[in-house]
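Worked example 2:
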Amino acid sequence: MNSLNWFEILMLFGALQGVLLIVAINRFSKRQKAANQIFTAFLISIVFNSSWEIWRSSGEMIVMDGIRNAIFFLYGPFYYCCVQSLLTTQLIDKKKWLIHTVPSLIYSGLLFFMIQNPGLWRASQVLTVVLVLVHGILYLWKSYQLVVNYRKKTLNTYPHLKYLQTITMLAGLFLLASLVALLIVDTAYFVVLFNRYLTGLIGSFVIYSLAYFAVLFPEVFKLPIEKAETKDDTPAPTPEVIQVPSKPRFKGDELQIWKTKLEEVMNSSKLYLNPTLALNDIANEMKIDKLLVSRVINEGYQLNFYDFVNTYRVEHFIQLSQDKQYQHYTTLALAYEAGFNAKSTFHKVFKKIKNTTPTAYLKLINEKPFGASA
């Protein structure tokens, strides 16, 4: 057996990394079954293509190359759906997602005729590469917009969003550069280059990026799902919601009553421990409209939603730091336990609320019992 070259070694490690990632996602992820299935199918398709690059023989293999092209048309939808899954814990509608597979299915149907006519196959190669690139760029652009909009919606609170935005942008620029190169370089040469090397590099980049993402932000894969409304004939039971007017001012001690109820929910349910806590989560727990929750927080505490929640997280962090059970935890580990999901966010929030760093604050309160002045 001939020794592997650098490219084949890269493909081999990419394939092995993909297999490990498949096992990890399905074993440790608490996300919904549909999301895990899409992640798994995406990784399997990349692993298949990477493995094929290692063991393929020289020469033209219309059937296998055609199958790979059909899979390439799934890369964009798979990636878009994976990004969507990482941004929300809501259930994925499988039927709606199947619409994205139409280009791949159409190509698979045409492949039957191309197998019968090798001349048609060769003539369609350049067009296929162009369509694959354009199709991929469009889905990466949709994914990029999805992340950007979500970052704005969450006030750029979560660091994993910046990472997702970066790898999506890099992948999109790579495909765009490939499309431009197709218009400049000899087309026949570029088709060979694309089929042999570029597709493998793209797949490996995605696998390594997702693996690194899983290492940096493992908590994202452990988020429980949110149950969405069912669309069958039997409506799902929904909590009774107290209807409240949206604009009238609070009367008398009404605001104080709602503040007390809100504090009871926050302290009893400890909702702030959820790193992706949203206004809807609190509203559902209190069985009131989210607009009322927002008004209570804004008017009752003069805080926005994120500052309000982070206040609880900071106090919980301080409580944990004084608990003997957590004495062996690092500062960052305690921050994660308190509901934060990034070191930078934790330090920024803590300093904003306590006007000092976490380390300085803990040193101060730990000195108090020994008579040190504050």
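DSSP finds 15 helices and no strands in the chain. Residues 16 and 230 are 38 Å apart (CA to CA).
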